[in-house]
Amino acid sequence: MDPGRLSLNQITVNSWSLEEAVEGCVRHGIGGIALWRDKIAAAGLDRAARLVQDAGLRVTSVCRGGMFTDPATPAAAVLADNRQAVEEAAALGADVLVLVCGALHDTDLPGARRRVRDGIEALLPHAAAAGVRLGVEPLHPMMIGVRSVVVSLAQALDLAEEFDDEHLGVVVDAYHVWWDPALAEQLTRAHGRVLGYHVSDWKASTSDLLLDRAVMGDGLIDLPWLSARVAETGFSGGVEVEVLSSALWAQDPDEVLRTVRRRFEDCV
Amino acid sequence: MDPGRLSLNQITVNSWSLEEAVEGCVRHGIGGIALWRDKIAAAGLDRAARLVQDAGLRVTSVCRGGMFTDPATPAAAVLADNRQAVEEAAALGADVLVLVCGALHDTDLPGARRRVRDGIEALLPHAAAAGVRLGVEPLHPMMIGVRSVVVSLAQALDLAEEFDDEHLGVVVDAYHVWWDPALAEQLTRAHGRVLGYHVSDWKASTSDLLLDRAVMGDGLIDLPWLSARVAETGFSGGVEVEVLSSALWAQDPDEVLRTVRRRFEDCV
Fold first, then answer.
1. What is d(CA A35, CA A14) in angstroms, rounded to the nearest whole number?
2. How large is the ipTM?
Protein backbone atom coordinates (compact mmCIF):
# COMPACT_ATOMS: atom_id res chain seq x y z
CA MET A 1 0.00 0.00 0.00
CA ASP A 2 1.02 3.60 -0.60
CA PRO A 3 3.34 4.46 2.33
CA GLY A 4 1.68 7.85 2.46
CA ARG A 5 -1.20 6.11 4.24
CA LEU A 6 0.96 4.46 6.89
CA SER A 7 0.16 5.28 10.50
CA LEU A 8 2.16 3.89 13.39
CA ASN A 9 0.06 2.53 16.21
CA GLN A 10 2.45 3.23 19.01
CA ILE A 11 1.86 -0.14 20.72
CA THR A 12 4.02 -1.54 17.90
CA VAL A 13 7.00 0.20 19.50
CA ASN A 14 5.75 -0.16 23.03
CA SER A 15 9.07 0.61 24.71
CA TRP A 16 9.03 4.12 23.30
CA SER A 17 7.40 7.07 25.03
CA LEU A 18 4.95 9.20 23.07
CA GLU A 19 7.73 11.68 22.37
CA GLU A 20 10.07 8.96 21.11
CA ALA A 21 7.33 7.49 18.92
CA VAL A 22 6.63 10.90 17.38
CA GLU A 23 10.35 11.40 16.70
CA GLY A 24 10.52 7.89 15.23
CA CYS A 25 7.68 8.64 12.82
CA VAL A 26 9.43 11.80 11.64
CA ARG A 27 12.75 9.99 11.29
CA HIS A 28 11.19 7.22 9.18
CA GLY A 29 8.89 9.41 7.09
CA ILE A 30 5.70 8.05 8.63
CA GLY A 31 2.85 10.55 8.40
CA GLY A 32 0.36 9.19 10.92
CA ILE A 33 0.32 7.95 14.48
CA ALA A 34 -2.17 6.29 16.82
CA LEU A 35 -1.80 7.08 20.48
CA TRP A 36 -2.60 5.06 23.60
CA ARG A 37 -4.08 6.74 26.60
CA ASP A 38 -1.44 5.58 29.08
CA LYS A 39 1.24 7.14 26.88
CA ILE A 40 -0.83 10.32 26.48
CA ALA A 41 -1.17 10.52 30.26
CA ALA A 42 2.56 10.02 30.73
CA ALA A 43 3.36 12.80 28.25
CA GLY A 44 0.54 15.09 29.39
CA LEU A 45 -2.37 15.79 27.04
CA ASP A 46 -1.36 19.35 26.08
CA ARG A 47 2.22 18.36 25.42
CA ALA A 48 1.11 15.30 23.43
CA ALA A 49 -1.11 17.49 21.25
CA ARG A 50 1.74 19.96 20.70
CA LEU A 51 4.21 17.19 19.85
CA VAL A 52 2.07 15.62 17.14
CA GLN A 53 1.09 19.01 15.75
CA ASP A 54 4.65 20.30 15.60
CA ALA A 55 5.70 17.06 13.89
CA GLY A 56 2.90 17.42 11.33
CA LEU A 57 1.51 14.00 12.20
CA ARG A 58 -2.07 12.96 11.61
CA VAL A 59 -3.52 11.20 14.67
CA THR A 60 -5.47 8.33 13.20
CA SER A 61 -6.87 7.14 16.51
CA VAL A 62 -6.78 7.24 20.25
CA CYS A 63 -6.74 3.81 21.90
CA ARG A 64 -9.04 3.37 23.66
CA GLY A 65 -12.48 4.01 25.09
CA GLY A 66 -15.04 1.35 25.88
CA MET A 67 -14.71 -1.24 28.65
CA PHE A 68 -18.43 -1.08 29.30
CA THR A 69 -19.01 -4.55 30.68
CA ASP A 70 -17.76 -4.92 34.24
CA PRO A 71 -20.86 -5.35 36.42
CA ALA A 72 -18.82 -4.12 39.41
CA THR A 73 -18.17 -0.71 37.82
CA PRO A 74 -21.06 1.78 37.96
CA ALA A 75 -22.25 3.00 34.55
CA ALA A 76 -21.54 6.59 35.65
CA ALA A 77 -17.88 5.77 36.26
CA VAL A 78 -17.61 4.04 32.90
CA LEU A 79 -19.19 7.05 31.21
CA ALA A 80 -16.89 9.49 33.03
CA ASP A 81 -13.80 7.65 31.86
CA ASN A 82 -15.13 7.46 28.32
CA ARG A 83 -15.94 11.18 28.30
CA GLN A 84 -12.35 11.79 29.32
CA ALA A 85 -11.21 9.64 26.39
CA VAL A 86 -13.46 11.66 24.06
CA GLU A 87 -11.91 14.88 25.32
CA GLU A 88 -8.43 13.50 24.70
CA ALA A 89 -9.37 12.44 21.18
CA ALA A 90 -10.82 15.90 20.53
CA ALA A 91 -7.74 17.68 21.89
CA LEU A 92 -5.50 15.54 19.69
CA GLY A 93 -7.69 15.95 16.60
CA ALA A 94 -7.89 12.17 16.27
CA ASP A 95 -9.81 10.65 13.37
CA VAL A 96 -11.52 8.20 15.72
CA LEU A 97 -11.69 7.05 19.32
CA VAL A 98 -11.37 3.27 19.24
CA LEU A 99 -13.85 1.44 21.45
CA VAL A 100 -12.66 -1.84 22.94
CA CYS A 101 -15.95 -2.77 24.45
CA GLY A 102 -15.00 -4.85 27.47
CA ALA A 103 -14.64 -8.47 28.50
CA LEU A 104 -17.13 -10.99 29.81
CA HIS A 105 -16.92 -11.14 33.60
CA ASP A 106 -19.43 -13.89 34.31
CA THR A 107 -21.62 -16.27 32.30
CA ASP A 108 -24.15 -13.60 31.28
CA LEU A 109 -22.98 -12.88 27.75
CA PRO A 110 -26.25 -11.27 26.58
CA GLY A 111 -26.13 -9.02 29.65
CA ALA A 112 -22.57 -7.94 28.88
CA ARG A 113 -23.55 -7.17 25.31
CA ARG A 114 -26.48 -5.09 26.54
CA ARG A 115 -24.10 -3.09 28.72
CA VAL A 116 -21.99 -2.39 25.64
CA ARG A 117 -25.01 -1.15 23.76
CA ASP A 118 -26.17 1.01 26.66
CA GLY A 119 -22.67 2.38 27.22
CA ILE A 120 -22.44 3.48 23.61
CA GLU A 121 -25.89 5.06 23.80
CA ALA A 122 -24.81 7.09 26.83
CA LEU A 123 -21.50 8.15 25.30
CA LEU A 124 -22.62 9.01 21.79
CA PRO A 125 -24.14 12.45 22.52
CA HIS A 126 -20.92 13.53 24.22
CA ALA A 127 -18.84 12.31 21.30
CA ALA A 128 -21.09 14.15 18.86
CA ALA A 129 -20.88 17.34 20.93
CA ALA A 130 -17.08 17.10 20.89
CA GLY A 131 -16.97 16.27 17.20
CA VAL A 132 -15.32 12.92 17.93
CA ARG A 133 -16.19 9.75 16.04
CA LEU A 134 -16.39 6.48 17.94
CA GLY A 135 -15.20 3.30 16.25
CA VAL A 136 -16.41 -0.04 17.61
CA GLU A 137 -13.57 -2.49 17.08
CA PRO A 138 -14.58 -6.14 17.07
CA LEU A 139 -11.84 -8.16 18.70
CA HIS A 140 -10.88 -11.76 18.04
CA PRO A 141 -13.25 -14.17 19.83
CA MET A 142 -10.31 -15.58 21.79
CA MET A 143 -10.15 -12.25 23.67
CA ILE A 144 -13.73 -12.39 24.94
CA GLY A 145 -12.65 -13.15 28.51
CA VAL A 146 -10.10 -10.36 28.70
CA ARG A 147 -11.00 -7.56 26.26
CA SER A 148 -14.25 -7.59 24.33
CA VAL A 149 -17.61 -9.28 23.98
CA VAL A 150 -17.87 -7.67 20.54
CA VAL A 151 -16.22 -10.35 18.45
CA SER A 152 -17.37 -10.01 14.87
CA LEU A 153 -17.77 -7.31 12.27
CA ALA A 154 -21.45 -8.20 11.94
CA GLN A 155 -21.96 -7.50 15.62
CA ALA A 156 -20.12 -4.17 15.44
CA LEU A 157 -22.19 -3.17 12.41
CA ASP A 158 -25.39 -4.13 14.25
CA LEU A 159 -24.45 -1.49 16.82
CA ALA A 160 -23.51 1.09 14.21
CA GLU A 161 -26.76 0.52 12.30
CA GLU A 162 -28.89 0.65 15.42
CA PHE A 163 -27.72 4.16 16.28
CA ASP A 164 -27.11 5.21 12.66
CA ASP A 165 -25.12 8.27 13.67
CA GLU A 166 -22.22 9.77 11.75
CA HIS A 167 -20.26 9.77 15.02
CA LEU A 168 -20.42 5.99 15.35
CA GLY A 169 -18.75 3.47 13.06
CA VAL A 170 -16.50 0.46 13.12
CA VAL A 171 -12.80 -0.21 13.08
CA VAL A 172 -11.57 -3.15 11.01
CA ASP A 173 -8.46 -4.79 12.40
CA ALA A 174 -7.22 -7.52 10.09
CA TYR A 175 -5.93 -9.62 12.97
CA HIS A 176 -9.33 -9.71 14.66
CA VAL A 177 -11.63 -10.36 11.70
CA TRP A 178 -9.67 -12.15 8.96
CA TRP A 179 -10.91 -15.67 9.87
CA ASP A 180 -14.60 -14.75 9.51
CA PRO A 181 -16.43 -16.61 6.72
CA ALA A 182 -18.88 -13.69 6.62
CA LEU A 183 -16.17 -11.05 6.23
CA ALA A 184 -16.66 -10.17 2.57
CA GLU A 185 -20.43 -9.93 3.02
CA GLN A 186 -20.07 -7.80 6.15
CA LEU A 187 -17.60 -5.45 4.47
CA THR A 188 -20.16 -4.87 1.75
CA ARG A 189 -22.65 -4.00 4.47
CA ALA A 190 -20.04 -1.74 6.13
CA HIS A 191 -20.06 0.81 3.31
CA GLY A 192 -19.52 4.29 4.78
CA ARG A 193 -19.18 2.99 8.33
CA VAL A 194 -15.48 2.07 8.48
CA LEU A 195 -13.57 4.63 10.53
CA GLY A 196 -10.27 2.82 10.84
CA TYR A 197 -8.25 -0.03 9.38
CA HIS A 198 -5.48 -1.80 11.28
CA VAL A 199 -3.01 -4.33 9.93
CA SER A 200 -0.66 -6.96 11.31
CA ASP A 201 -0.51 -10.69 10.60
CA TRP A 202 -1.57 -14.03 12.11
CA LYS A 203 1.21 -16.51 12.80
CA ALA A 204 0.38 -20.08 11.79
CA SER A 205 1.33 -21.36 15.20
CA THR A 206 0.27 -18.53 17.45
CA SER A 207 1.56 -19.13 20.97
CA ASP A 208 -0.04 -16.33 22.96
CA LEU A 209 -3.56 -14.92 22.88
CA LEU A 210 -2.48 -11.29 23.25
CA LEU A 211 1.15 -10.68 22.34
CA ASP A 212 2.09 -12.95 19.45
CA ARG A 213 1.05 -11.00 16.38
CA ALA A 214 3.29 -10.95 13.34
CA VAL A 215 4.43 -8.15 11.05
CA MET A 216 2.52 -8.06 7.77
CA GLY A 217 3.82 -10.71 5.41
CA ASP A 218 4.89 -13.12 8.15
CA GLY A 219 1.53 -14.82 8.54
CA LEU A 220 -1.61 -16.24 6.98
CA ILE A 221 -3.72 -13.15 6.30
CA ASP A 222 -4.37 -12.14 2.69
CA LEU A 223 -3.88 -8.45 3.41
CA PRO A 224 -3.99 -7.18 -0.21
CA TRP A 225 -7.44 -8.78 -0.58
CA LEU A 226 -8.65 -7.26 2.68
CA SER A 227 -7.21 -3.84 1.85
CA ALA A 228 -9.09 -3.84 -1.45
CA ARG A 229 -12.35 -4.78 0.28
CA VAL A 230 -11.87 -2.11 2.95
CA ALA A 231 -11.19 0.47 0.21
CA GLU A 232 -14.50 -0.49 -1.40
CA THR A 233 -16.30 0.54 1.80
CA GLY A 234 -15.12 4.07 1.06
CA PHE A 235 -12.46 4.17 3.76
CA SER A 236 -9.47 6.20 2.60
CA GLY A 237 -7.85 7.25 5.87
CA GLY A 238 -4.57 6.35 7.50
CA VAL A 239 -3.89 2.64 7.88
CA GLU A 240 -2.51 1.70 11.27
CA VAL A 241 0.18 -0.88 11.77
CA GLU A 242 -0.67 -2.35 15.16
CA VAL A 243 1.54 -5.28 16.12
CA LEU A 244 1.23 -6.44 19.71
CA SER A 245 4.22 -8.75 19.97
CA SER A 246 6.55 -9.40 22.86
CA ALA A 247 9.12 -10.64 20.33
CA LEU A 248 8.91 -7.41 18.34
CA TRP A 249 9.06 -5.32 21.50
CA ALA A 250 12.42 -6.90 22.27
CA GLN A 251 13.88 -5.58 18.98
CA ASP A 252 15.41 -2.19 18.26
CA PRO A 253 12.40 0.07 17.53
CA ASP A 254 14.15 1.79 14.63
CA GLU A 255 14.72 -1.60 13.03
CA VAL A 256 11.04 -2.40 13.65
CA LEU A 257 9.99 0.80 11.87
CA ARG A 258 12.19 0.03 8.88
CA THR A 259 10.57 -3.41 8.61
CA VAL A 260 7.07 -2.02 9.11
CA ARG A 261 7.53 0.57 6.39
CA ARG A 262 8.88 -1.94 3.89
CA ARG A 263 6.23 -4.53 4.63
CA PHE A 264 3.49 -1.91 4.46
CA GLU A 265 4.50 -1.16 0.89
CA ASP A 266 5.02 -4.79 -0.11
CA CYS A 267 2.39 -6.78 1.79
CA VAL A 268 -0.60 -4.57 2.61
CA MET B 1 -27.91 -32.71 32.69
CA ASP B 2 -29.11 -36.26 33.16
CA PRO B 3 -25.93 -38.28 33.79
CA GLY B 4 -27.39 -41.01 31.62
CA ARG B 5 -26.42 -38.87 28.64
CA LEU B 6 -22.79 -38.44 29.69
CA SER B 7 -20.15 -39.66 27.27
CA LEU B 8 -16.45 -39.49 28.02
CA ASN B 9 -14.36 -38.13 25.20
CA GLN B 10 -11.21 -40.00 25.95
CA ILE B 11 -8.95 -37.00 25.32
CA THR B 12 -10.21 -35.79 28.72
CA VAL B 13 -8.20 -38.59 30.32
CA ASN B 14 -5.45 -38.56 27.75
CA SER B 15 -2.94 -40.55 29.78
CA TRP B 16 -5.24 -43.57 29.71
CA SER B 17 -5.19 -46.17 26.97
CA LEU B 18 -8.44 -47.09 25.29
CA GLU B 19 -8.75 -50.10 27.57
CA GLU B 20 -8.18 -48.00 30.69
CA ALA B 21 -10.70 -45.41 29.49
CA VAL B 22 -13.32 -48.12 28.91
CA GLU B 23 -12.69 -49.53 32.39
CA GLY B 24 -12.87 -46.02 33.83
CA CYS B 25 -16.28 -45.45 32.25
CA VAL B 26 -17.58 -48.70 33.70
CA ARG B 27 -16.11 -47.89 37.14
CA HIS B 28 -17.76 -44.46 37.19
CA GLY B 29 -21.09 -45.44 35.66
CA ILE B 30 -20.55 -43.52 32.44
CA GLY B 31 -22.53 -45.01 29.55
CA GLY B 32 -20.84 -43.47 26.53
CA ILE B 33 -17.37 -42.96 25.19
CA ALA B 34 -15.76 -41.11 22.28
CA LEU B 35 -12.64 -42.65 20.85
CA TRP B 36 -9.60 -41.12 19.17
CA ARG B 37 -8.00 -42.82 16.26
CA ASP B 38 -4.49 -42.97 17.73
CA LYS B 39 -5.89 -44.81 20.74
CA ILE B 40 -7.94 -47.10 18.49
CA ALA B 41 -4.80 -47.90 16.51
CA ALA B 42 -2.85 -48.60 19.69
CA ALA B 43 -5.55 -50.99 20.95
CA GLY B 44 -6.25 -52.52 17.54
CA LEU B 45 -9.62 -51.91 15.87
CA ASP B 46 -11.14 -55.35 16.52
CA ARG B 47 -10.06 -55.33 20.13
CA ALA B 48 -11.34 -51.77 20.60
CA ALA B 49 -14.73 -52.77 19.19
CA ARG B 50 -14.87 -55.80 21.47
CA LEU B 51 -13.89 -53.77 24.54
CA VAL B 52 -16.61 -51.17 24.13
CA GLN B 53 -19.20 -53.80 23.23
CA ASP B 54 -18.36 -56.01 26.19
CA ALA B 55 -18.53 -52.97 28.46
CA GLY B 56 -21.93 -52.01 27.05
CA LEU B 57 -20.69 -48.55 26.09
CA ARG B 58 -22.25 -46.42 23.39
CA VAL B 59 -19.60 -44.94 21.10
CA THR B 60 -20.78 -41.38 20.57
CA SER B 61 -18.05 -40.48 18.11
CA VAL B 62 -14.74 -41.30 16.54
CA CYS B 63 -12.27 -38.40 16.49
CA ARG B 64 -11.46 -37.66 13.78
CA GLY B 65 -11.66 -37.51 10.01
CA GLY B 66 -11.14 -34.42 7.93
CA MET B 67 -7.83 -32.60 7.48
CA PHE B 68 -8.70 -31.82 3.89
CA THR B 69 -6.69 -28.63 3.43
CA ASP B 70 -2.99 -29.31 3.04
CA PRO B 71 -2.12 -28.42 -0.58
CA ALA B 72 0.92 -30.73 -0.31
CA THR B 73 -1.21 -33.82 0.31
CA PRO B 74 -2.92 -35.33 -2.75
CA ALA B 75 -6.71 -35.49 -2.52
CA ALA B 76 -6.53 -39.27 -3.05
CA ALA B 77 -4.37 -39.69 0.05
CA VAL B 78 -6.73 -37.52 2.08
CA LEU B 79 -9.69 -39.57 0.88
CA ALA B 80 -7.94 -42.85 1.64
CA ASP B 81 -7.28 -41.81 5.22
CA ASN B 82 -10.83 -40.60 5.64
CA ARG B 83 -12.25 -43.83 4.23
CA GLN B 84 -10.18 -45.64 6.84
CA ALA B 85 -11.70 -43.42 9.51
CA VAL B 86 -15.18 -44.21 8.17
CA GLU B 87 -14.44 -47.93 8.40
CA GLU B 88 -13.27 -47.53 11.98
CA ALA B 89 -16.40 -45.60 12.89
CA ALA B 90 -18.54 -48.31 11.25
CA ALA B 91 -16.71 -51.12 13.04
CA LEU B 92 -17.19 -49.35 16.36
CA GLY B 93 -20.84 -48.54 15.71
CA ALA B 94 -20.10 -44.87 16.39
CA ASP B 95 -22.93 -42.33 16.24
CA VAL B 96 -20.78 -39.98 14.17
CA LEU B 97 -17.34 -39.51 12.66
CA VAL B 98 -16.18 -36.05 13.67
CA LEU B 99 -14.63 -34.02 10.87
CA VAL B 100 -11.92 -31.58 11.89
CA CYS B 101 -11.54 -30.03 8.51
CA GLY B 102 -7.92 -28.92 8.42
CA ALA B 103 -5.83 -25.82 8.97
CA LEU B 104 -4.87 -22.99 6.66
CA HIS B 105 -1.42 -23.63 5.24
CA ASP B 106 -0.90 -20.43 3.21
CA THR B 107 -2.81 -17.19 2.62
CA ASP B 108 -5.43 -18.75 0.34
CA LEU B 109 -8.32 -19.11 2.78
CA PRO B 110 -11.04 -19.44 0.10
CA GLY B 111 -8.94 -22.16 -1.55
CA ALA B 112 -8.60 -24.07 1.72
CA ARG B 113 -12.34 -23.83 2.27
CA ARG B 114 -12.97 -25.16 -1.23
CA ARG B 115 -10.74 -28.14 -0.46
CA VAL B 116 -12.87 -28.85 2.61
CA ARG B 117 -16.03 -28.78 0.53
CA ASP B 118 -14.52 -31.00 -2.15
CA GLY B 119 -13.13 -33.40 0.42
CA ILE B 120 -16.54 -33.84 2.00
CA GLU B 121 -18.12 -34.34 -1.42
CA ALA B 122 -15.65 -37.13 -2.17
CA LEU B 123 -16.06 -38.80 1.22
CA LEU B 124 -19.82 -38.64 1.61
CA PRO B 125 -20.76 -41.56 -0.70
CA HIS B 126 -18.36 -43.83 1.18
CA ALA B 127 -19.80 -42.75 4.52
CA ALA B 128 -23.34 -43.36 3.26
CA ALA B 129 -22.35 -46.79 1.95
CA ALA B 130 -20.90 -47.67 5.35
CA GLY B 131 -23.88 -46.22 7.22
CA VAL B 132 -21.64 -43.71 8.98
CA ARG B 133 -22.70 -40.13 9.64
CA LEU B 134 -20.15 -37.35 9.24
CA GLY B 135 -20.25 -34.40 11.61
CA VAL B 136 -18.53 -31.17 10.58
CA GLU B 137 -17.23 -29.61 13.77
CA PRO B 138 -16.55 -25.89 13.56
CA LEU B 139 -13.49 -25.09 15.65
CA HIS B 140 -12.66 -21.88 17.45
CA PRO B 141 -11.27 -19.26 15.04
CA MET B 142 -8.02 -19.17 17.02
CA MET B 143 -7.28 -22.68 15.73
CA ILE B 144 -7.48 -21.75 12.05
CA GLY B 145 -3.71 -22.03 11.57
CA VAL B 146 -3.40 -25.42 13.23
CA ARG B 147 -6.69 -27.31 12.98
CA SER B 148 -9.61 -25.98 10.97
CA VAL B 149 -10.67 -23.35 8.46
CA VAL B 150 -14.26 -24.15 9.43
CA VAL B 151 -14.70 -21.72 12.30
CA SER B 152 -18.39 -21.03 12.79
CA LEU B 153 -21.62 -22.97 13.07
CA ALA B 154 -23.01 -20.99 10.14
CA GLN B 155 -20.17 -22.19 7.96
CA ALA B 156 -20.62 -25.82 9.03
CA LEU B 157 -24.35 -25.56 8.34
CA ASP B 158 -23.66 -24.09 4.90
CA LEU B 159 -21.81 -27.31 4.12
CA ALA B 160 -24.52 -29.53 5.59
CA GLU B 161 -27.23 -27.67 3.68
CA GLU B 162 -25.32 -27.76 0.42
CA PHE B 163 -25.16 -31.57 0.43
CA ASP B 164 -28.42 -32.03 2.34
CA ASP B 165 -27.69 -35.69 3.07
CA GLU B 166 -28.73 -37.59 6.18
CA HIS B 167 -25.13 -38.77 6.48
CA LEU B 168 -23.79 -35.24 6.91
CA GLY B 169 -24.45 -32.93 9.83
CA VAL B 170 -22.67 -30.76 12.35
CA VAL B 171 -21.11 -31.22 15.77
CA VAL B 172 -21.63 -28.44 18.29
CA ASP B 173 -18.76 -28.06 20.74
CA ALA B 174 -19.53 -25.44 23.35
CA TYR B 175 -15.89 -24.37 23.61
CA HIS B 176 -15.66 -23.62 19.91
CA VAL B 177 -18.92 -21.78 19.31
CA TRP B 178 -20.08 -20.16 22.54
CA TRP B 179 -18.71 -16.68 21.72
CA ASP B 180 -20.68 -16.38 18.46
CA PRO B 181 -23.29 -13.59 18.40
CA ALA B 182 -25.15 -15.59 15.74
CA LEU B 183 -25.22 -18.79 17.80
CA ALA B 184 -28.89 -18.79 18.80
CA GLU B 185 -29.98 -18.00 15.25
CA GLN B 186 -27.73 -20.69 13.80
CA LEU B 187 -28.96 -23.29 16.27
CA THR B 188 -32.48 -22.58 15.10
CA ARG B 189 -31.27 -23.17 11.57
CA ALA B 190 -29.51 -26.37 12.72
CA HIS B 191 -32.74 -28.23 13.44
CA GLY B 192 -32.26 -31.91 12.62
CA ARG B 193 -28.63 -31.47 11.61
CA VAL B 194 -26.84 -31.71 14.98
CA LEU B 195 -25.07 -35.06 15.29
CA GLY B 196 -23.03 -34.37 18.39
CA TYR B 197 -22.75 -32.02 21.34
CA HIS B 198 -19.50 -31.53 23.28
CA VAL B 199 -19.02 -29.63 26.52
CA SER B 200 -16.15 -28.11 28.48
CA ASP B 201 -15.64 -24.52 29.61
CA TRP B 202 -13.73 -21.37 28.64
CA LYS B 203 -11.36 -19.97 31.25
CA ALA B 204 -11.52 -16.19 31.62
CA SER B 205 -7.78 -15.91 31.22
CA THR B 206 -7.03 -18.68 28.77
CA SER B 207 -3.28 -19.14 28.50
CA ASP B 208 -2.94 -21.68 25.69
CA LEU B 209 -4.74 -21.98 22.38
CA LEU B 210 -5.08 -25.77 22.50
CA LEU B 211 -4.70 -27.21 25.96
CA ASP B 212 -6.22 -24.82 28.47
CA ARG B 213 -9.89 -25.77 28.52
CA ALA B 214 -11.75 -25.89 31.82
CA VAL B 215 -14.13 -28.42 33.28
CA MET B 216 -17.76 -27.34 33.02
CA GLY B 217 -18.58 -24.79 35.69
CA ASP B 218 -15.07 -23.35 35.89
CA GLY B 219 -15.48 -20.85 33.08
CA LEU B 220 -17.61 -18.31 31.27
CA ILE B 221 -19.90 -20.47 29.13
CA ASP B 222 -23.61 -20.54 29.93
CA LEU B 223 -23.87 -24.28 29.36
CA PRO B 224 -27.48 -24.76 30.60
CA TRP B 225 -28.62 -22.19 28.04
CA LEU B 226 -26.66 -23.87 25.27
CA SER B 227 -27.85 -27.35 26.26
CA ALA B 228 -31.45 -26.18 26.03
CA ARG B 229 -30.88 -24.67 22.59
CA VAL B 230 -29.14 -27.82 21.35
CA ALA B 231 -32.04 -29.92 22.68
CA GLU B 232 -34.41 -27.74 20.63
CA THR B 233 -32.58 -28.78 17.46
CA GLY B 234 -33.82 -32.31 18.14
CA PHE B 235 -30.49 -33.69 19.29
CA SER B 236 -30.98 -36.24 22.05
CA GLY B 237 -27.79 -38.31 21.86
CA GLY B 238 -24.88 -38.71 24.20
CA VAL B 239 -23.19 -35.51 25.33
CA GLU B 240 -19.42 -35.67 25.25
CA VAL B 241 -17.23 -34.13 27.88
CA GLU B 242 -14.13 -33.14 25.94
CA VAL B 243 -11.61 -31.22 28.00
CA LEU B 244 -8.22 -30.71 26.39
CA SER B 245 -6.20 -29.47 29.32
CA SER B 246 -2.59 -30.08 30.25
CA ALA B 247 -3.50 -29.19 33.86
CA LEU B 248 -6.27 -31.79 33.93
CA TRP B 249 -4.05 -34.39 32.30
CA ALA B 250 -1.64 -34.02 35.23
CA GLN B 251 -4.38 -35.07 37.67
CA ASP B 252 -5.44 -38.57 38.71
CA PRO B 253 -7.86 -39.67 35.95
CA ASP B 254 -10.26 -41.25 38.44
CA GLU B 255 -10.47 -37.94 40.26
CA VAL B 256 -11.07 -36.23 36.91
CA LEU B 257 -13.96 -38.58 36.15
CA ARG B 258 -15.54 -37.95 39.55
CA THR B 259 -15.37 -34.20 38.88
CA VAL B 260 -16.64 -34.58 35.32
CA ARG B 261 -19.62 -36.63 36.42
CA ARG B 262 -20.59 -34.21 39.19
CA ARG B 263 -20.17 -31.13 36.99
CA PHE B 264 -22.12 -32.76 34.18
CA GLU B 265 -25.10 -33.09 36.49
CA ASP B 266 -24.72 -29.64 38.05
CA CYS B 267 -23.45 -27.37 35.28
CA VAL B 268 -24.50 -28.74 31.88
1. 11
2. 0.97
